[in-house]
Design goal:
This protein has 129 residues and is mainly beta. Helix content is 0%, strand content 53%. A hairpin with a 5-residue loop joins strand 2 (16-23) and strand 3 (29-35).
Length: 129
């Protein structure tokens, strides 16, 4: 028996979950599985607030452009600093190509080195698969 569940709320547009339910002959629940489709690659930023009175040194995402096989991020951070993004690969079949950042050995992080300059400077990082 297959039942369809639909997510609701403003951020659930286009999200659909399937719930597969197998029953014993008696009608008792045998197993259930919830499938949530994930993008092939996800990127995250560490969050946290600076200490009171401290200078802000946090990276900012100025723009994000996603396509079925790539993600382009326009970032800003203080000049001549390196920042870290978290990287999650949900599809083991993809082979990443990264421009504008360096992947850690385990591909769990992206290191972005921002160029010299004054104040906040911009850099673009592109991940393709």
């Amino acid at each position: 028996m297959l039942e369809q569940l639909a997510a609701s709320g403003p951020s659930a547009k286009g999200v659909q979950h399937e719930l597969d339910i197998a029953y014993y002959r008696t009608g008792k629940l045998l197993s259930a599985e919830l499938r949530i489709p994930l993008p092939a690659v996800e990127v995250g930023i560490a969050h946290g607030l600076p200490e009171a009175g401290a200078r802000k040194l946090q990276m900012k995402v100025l723009d994000q452009q996603a396509s079925p096989h790539s993600l382009r991020l326009r970032l800003a951070a203080p000049a001549n600093r390196h920042q870290t993004l978290f990287l999650r690969v949900n599809d083991s079949k993809v082979h990443l190509r990264i421009d504008g950042a360096d992947a850690s050995v385990d591909s769990a992080q992206l290191k972005v080195q921002f160029p010299p300059g004054a104040g906040y400077v911009e850099k673009t990082a592109t991940i393709s698969w």
